[in-house]
Specification:
- Helix content is 52%, strand content 17%.
- The chain has 150 residues and is an alpha+beta fold.
- The protein has one domain.
Length: 150
């Protein structure tokens, strides 16, 4: 529950606890990542985009959830990687369309392997970085021997 109430001598005191909602958001993000990870090159009709675009946005969300707790050095590292991936997606297409110039005017969609190898490497680095920061700042699931933020 996001609201916590306490009775005091002066009346009832309520405070908002965002940790439960944050965990719910993280759970939804991680669930979506697990669903689409099996084929990142596939087009996802539910979102109208390729899965690698969707998973990049999921990793951005994971990173944004922990970013406020990060040091300036961590923020610089995370922002740099996030911006590099965004720039790559904008400038270097993974899927390239080639239109046949004569009838039947087919459109062939090919994967640019060079671009894909680099993007895949950077996506893995971004996921690992976001998860490392979450672990370092107590936003992971608690282990039996320790207590986490939630």
């Amino acid at each position: 529950m996001a609201w916590v109430s306490q009775n005091t001598d002066e009346g009832k005191l309520s405070e908002y606890n965002s940790a439960a909602l944050k965990m719910k958001r993280l759970d939804k993000i991680l669930d979506l990542i697990n669903q689409i990870r099996t084929n990142l090159l596939a087009f996802n009709p539910d979102f109208g985009r390729y899965n690698y675009d969707i998973i990049y946005e999921c990793y951005c969300s994971l990173y944004q959830e922990v970013r406020p707790q990060c040091s300036e050095e961590e923020k610089t590292e995370g922002d740099k990687l996030k911006d590099a991936i965004k720039s790559m997606l904008e400038k270097y297409p993974i899927h390239e369309e080639k239109r046949q110039s004569v009838y039947p005017y087919k459109i062939n969609v090919n994967v640019n392997q060079k671009h894909w190898v680099v993007l895949r490497k950077w996506l893995d680095q971004f996921e690992n970085l976001a998860r490392k920061y979450q672990d370092a700042h107590g936003m992971d699931t608690a282990y039996e021997s320790e207590s986490a933020m939630f």
